[in-house]
TrEMBL record:
Annotated protein name in UniProt: Membrane protein insertase YidC
Signal peptide: none
Keywords from the named record: Cell membrane, Chaperone, Membrane, Protein transport, Transmembrane, Transmembrane helix, Transport
Domain of life: Bacteria
Gene of this entry: yidC
InterPro entries, alphabetized: YidC/ALB3/OXA1/COX18, YidC/Oxa/ALB_C, YidC_ALB_C
TM region positions: 47-67, 119-144, 164-184, 196-212, 218-237
Source species taxonomy: Bacteria, Bacillati, Bacillota, Bacilli, Lactobacillales
Amino acid sequence: MKIKGLTPILLILLVILFVTGHGYFLEGPLTNFMHMSENWIGGANAVGWSIIILTFVVRLVLLPFMVHQQRAATIQQEKMRLLQPQMTKIQEAQKNAQTQEEKMLASQAMMAVYRENGVSLLGGMNFTVLIIQWPVFMGLYAAIKNSHDLVNASFFGIKLATQSPVLAIATAVVYGLQAYLSMVGVPAEQKKQMQSMMMIMPIMMLFMTWVTNGGIALYFFVGALVMIIQTLIIIVWRPRLRQHVADTFEVKDVVDDALSGKLQSEPTGPFAQAMKAAQAQQDAQARKDITDDASENTHPESKGGRNAGKQKR
C-alpha cells in the first residue's frame, strides 16, 4: 500500500507539530493507556506488556505499508538481478577506464541503466512508516519519563524509564538478524552491494535505543521481531515474486549507449528541472560573455571610436 504524495504531507505535518510544540501530543493518551493496562493485566510487568500491546497495534495499522515496502524492495532486488550482466560490463569499464571522461561515463552508466529500466536505488523504501511512528516514539518516551506512576515501572527487572544497554544490544542483534534474513535468496554479487547498506540499520538502532529509555528500546525490540515475521513471509513469497518479475519486467540493454554517453539524463522532479533551467541560463550567460569578449577583441577600433567620440563632446 502506497498513497502517492502521502509522505511529504506527513512530513510537513510532523514539522508543524515540532515547530508549534505539539510533538508530544500522544503523551496523555499513551499514559492513560498504560495505566489502564496496569489495571487490566496487573503485576510488576504490566507496563512492559502494555508497550508490547501498543507495538503490535501500531504495527497492525502500518502492516499494509510495511508489506508493500518489503514486497517492493524484493521486486527491485529481482530486477537488479536481471540487470547484473550490464552491471558487470560497467564494472569492467570502470577498471579499464584510462581518461577522466571514460571514468565519468562509467560512473554515470550504472545510474543510466537503472533509470532506463525503471529501477530505484532506494529499493522500494517507504518513509511513511517511519514518519507515522515518530509521534508514537515521542509520546511513549514522555509518558514514561514524566508520569510519577510509570517512572519506576520495570519489565522483568529492566527499568523502562532509564537507559537499558541490554535491550539496546538485543534490538541491534534482532535488526541484524532481520537484515541477514532479507538477503536470503539474493544472488551473491548483489549481496556484496547490499551488505554495507543492510548493516546501517542495526548500528543506527543500537545508537537510538542506547541513548533513550528502556520503554522505547522495548518498543523497537518487539517491532524488530514483527519485522522478522514479515521478512520470513517475503522469503516464502520470493519464488512467486521472482516469477512475476521474470514475466513482466522487460530488460532494456542500454549499457553500450550508457558507456558511450549517448543516454542523456532528463530531470523528472521539480527540483531537478529547476537545477537544469538554472544551469542552462548560466551556460547561456557564459556563451554571451564569450561572444561579447570576442566581438570586442575583433573590433577594438569601434570601442576606441566610441570613447573618442565621448571625449570630443
